[in-house]
Specification:
The structure is a single chain. The chain is 44% helix and 12% strand. It contains 14 helices and eleven strands. Strands 9-8-7-10-11 form a five-stranded parallel sheet, sandwiched between helices. The longest helix has 18 residues. It starts with a helix and ends in a 13-residue tail after the last strand. The relative contact order is 0.13.
Length: 357
C-alpha cells in the first residue's frame, strides 16, 4: 500500500474512533483550535466539553441516552422539526438512544394535553427508540442535547452544500432523509388519521403538489425567503398539467387569496383540505388564536398533513420554506423522487424588518 493510501486508511480509522468516543472528539477539536478563543468557548461552554452526563437512576446501564428537549415560541412546526432532525443526526453519530420532549412553550402545545398525552412531541410521534420520558428519568447515562451540537456540528461541515437558513443542499436532504427513516415514526392515531385523510383526498391519482406560503411572508422579514407571487406558482403548475402526466393539483397554503386564484384556474382539477385555517392578511396562521377545541394541536396536525400530502404527490411546485424542505426530506425518506420538481426561488430578504411573533 502506498504512503498516501496508508495515511488515508489511518485517517479513516481515526475518524471511526472519534465517532465512538465523543469526549475524544471534543478534545481533539479543542487541541486543533486552541488559538481560537471564540471556538474554544463555543465547544467548551460553561457546562464542560460538549456533553454533560447525568445519572438519574440505575436503568439502562447498557445505553447512552440523549435527551433532546428544545422548542421555542419563535419557530413554526417544521422549523422545529428540522432542528429535531439535526439533533437526531448528532445522536446517530455517537450511537446514542434519543428521547424527545417538546416543552410547554412549544407553539402547538395544549395546556391540558391531547388524548392524555402531555409531551407535545408525542401528540404526533412515537419516541424514536421506544424509551419513554419516564424511563429516561430513571436511567444511568443521560446526555443532554445542547444548542452547540447543532450549530457547530459535523453535519454542516461534511455534507456538500450543507444548509444555510432555509437553503438546503440535495446531499443534506439525503442525509436528513436517512435520519428520518431511522428515527421518526408517527404514533398509531396519527398514522391512521394520515392514511385516511391523504388517501381520501388524493385517491391514488397522479398529482402535482403545490405549496404556497403566504400570510406573514408578505412582511418580507429579514433572512426569510422573498415571497413569490401566486401567479408564478400557477404558471408552473399549468406547465406540468399540460404535460399530460398529471390528473389533478393539490394545493397546500395558508393564504385564502392563493386558494381563490388556484380555484379560478384549475376548477374541479384542484383538491385541497377544507378544514384548514387560512388568512387574507399578513399574520402567520401558526400563531393564530381561534375558539376551537385543541386549536394549537390541530394547527400542528394540519400542517403535518399538508407536508405529508405534498410528499405523497408525484410532482412538486413550491417556494423556499420549511414545509417544502421537509416534504422533500420525507419523500426521500421513503426512497422516492419527484417526477418533476419546480422550486421557485427569489432569494433571501435582507431588510431591517426582523421577525417578531
Amino acid at each position: 500500500m502506498s504512503i498516501r493510501g496508508r495515511l488515508s486508511r489511518t485517517k479513516s480509522d481515526l475518524y471511526q474512533i472519534l465517532v465512538r468516543h465523543p469526549f475524544l472528539d471534543a478534545l481533539q477539536y479543542l487541541v486543533r483550535n486552541f488559538n481560537n478563543k471564540e471556538q474554544c468557548r463555543r465547544i467548551a461552554g460553561r457546562d464542560g466539553l460538549v456533553l454533560k452526563c447525568n445519572f438519574y437512576g440505575n436503568s439502562n446501564k447498557d445505553k447512552c441516552i440523549y435527551y433532546i428537549r428544545f422548542g421555542g415560541a419563535e419557530h413554526g412546526f417544521f422549523g422545529q422539526f428540522r432542528i429535531l432532525l439535526k439533533y437526531l443526526a448528532y445522536a446517530d453519530r455517537f450511537g446514542f438512544y434519543p428521547v424527545v420532549e417538546w416543552p410547554n412553550n412549544f407553539p402547538y402545545a395544549e395546556k391540558e394535553g391531547v388524548r392524555g398525552i402531555q409531551n407535545p412531541f408525542e401528540y404526533y410521534f412515537d419516541q424514536p427508540m421506544g424509551i419513554s420520558l419516564e424511563d429516561m428519568r430513571k436511567s444511568y447515562n443521560v446526555f443532554c442535547g445542547e444548542e452547540i451540537h447543532i450549530t457547530d456540528f459535523y453535519l454542516d461541515k461534511e455534507i456538500p452544500g450543507g444548509e444555510e437558513g432555509y437553503m438546503i443542499s440535495e446531499a443534506f436532504i439525503e442525509r436528513l432523509a436517512e435520519i428520518m427513516r431511522k428515527y421518526i415514526r408517527l404514533n398509531s392515531w396519527t398514522e391512521n388519521y394520515m392514511q385516511q385523510e391523504i388517501g381520501g383526498l388524493l385517491q391514488n391519482k397522479k398529482t402535482v403538489g403545490v405549496h404556497v406560503r403566504g400570510s406573514d411572508y408578505k412582511k418580507n422579514y429579514n433572512n426569510h425567503p422573498a415571497i413569490v407571487p401566486v401567479k408564478e406558482y400557477i404558471r408552473a403548475a399549468e406547465r406540468l398539467m399540460r404535460s399530460g402526466k398529471y390528473e389533478q393539483v393539490f394545493l397546500a397554503t395558508d393564504d385564502m387569496e392563493a386558494l381563490e386564484l388556484f380555484s379560478s384556474v384549475f376548477a374541479d382539477k384542484l383538491v385541497y383540505y377544507k378544514d384548514v385555517i387560512r388568512t387574507k392578511g399578513n399574520v402567520s396562521v401558526a400563531f393564530s388564536k381561534k375558539r376551537r377545541n385543541n386549536h394549537r394541536y390541530r394547527l400542528g396536525l394540519e400542517v403535518l398533513r399538508d407536508m405529508m400530502s405534498l410528499a405523497a404527490c408525484d410532482g412538486l411546485v413550491a417556494g423556499i420554506s420549511q414545509v417544502s424542505n421537509c416534504a422533500r426530506i420525507t419523500r426521500r425518506s421513503d426512497e422516492k423522487n419527484y417526477e418533476d420538481m419546480v422550486i421557485l426561488d427569489r432569494g433571501i430578504n435582507h431588510t431591517r424588518n426582523d421577525f417578531v411573533r
